[in-house]
Specification:
single chain; about 160 residues; mainly alpha; 9 helices
C-alpha cells in the first residue's frame, strides 16, 4: 500500500508540474493583449472579441476576461463589438452570472441601445427568479435617465 501511495504521489507531482509548465498560443495572445495597444492591433483586437464571444470556461478564464474587459473599456467600439458584449451579458443573465458579471455590466453605458434595453426589460419580467435578479443587477448599469438608475425598467 505504501508503494501505491508513493506512485500516486509521484504521478500527481508530475501532473502538477506539467500543468504549471503548460503554455499555449492563447497565453501568448493574452499576455500581448495586456501589454500592447489592442485598439490599434487588428490581431489582438480580433482575439479579444473572439474571447468575449466564446466566453470560455477553463482554469483562470474568468480572470482573463476581467483583464480584457478593462482593456475594452478604453476602446471605441464598433457596432459588431457592441453586439458581442450585449450577447455575453444576455447569456450571463439567462444562464449564470459568474464572478466577473459586474465587470462586464460596467460596459453597459458603452453598448446601450434601445433593443438591448428592451431585452433586459423582458428578462426583468421573467418567471425565473434568478434571471430576474441578474437582469435587475444589469439594469443598474444603464446610464441615469432621470432621478434613479434603471428608469424605464419595471423592477420586480
Amino acid at each position: 500500500r505504501s508503494d501505491q501511495s508513493k506512485h500516486a504521489r509521484r504521478d500527481w507531482e508530475l501532473a502538477a508540474k506539467r500543468f504549471r509548465e503548460h503554455k499555449s498560443e492563447v497565453d501568448d495572445l493574452v499576455e500581448r493583449c495586456m501589454t500592447q495597444d489592442i485598439g490599434n492591433d487588428r490581431e489582438l483586437r480580433a482575439f479579444t472579441f473572439s474571447y468575449v464571444k466564446s466566453d470560455p470556461y477553463f482554469f483562470r478564464s474568468g480572470y482573463i476576461l476581467e483583464r480584457l474587459v478593462r482593456r475594452i473599456k478604453k476602446l471605441d467600439l464598433s457596432e459588431t463589438e457592441k453586439v458581442l458584449i450585449q450577447e455575453l451579458i444576455l447569456k450571463r443573465i439567462d444562464t449564470n452570472a459568474l464572478r466577473n458579471f459586474r465587470d462586464i455590466c460596467r460596459l453597459i453605458p458603452m453598448i446601450e441601445t434601445e433593443g438591448f434595453s428592451n431585452k433586459i426589460a423582458a428578462r426583468l419580467r421573467s418567471d425565473e427568479p434568478s434571471i430576474r435578479h441578474r437582469a435587475e443587477f444589469a439594469a443598474l448599469y444603464f446610464p441615469i435617465r432621470g432621478k434613479a438608475r434603471g428608469v424605464g425598467f419595471e423592477m420586480a
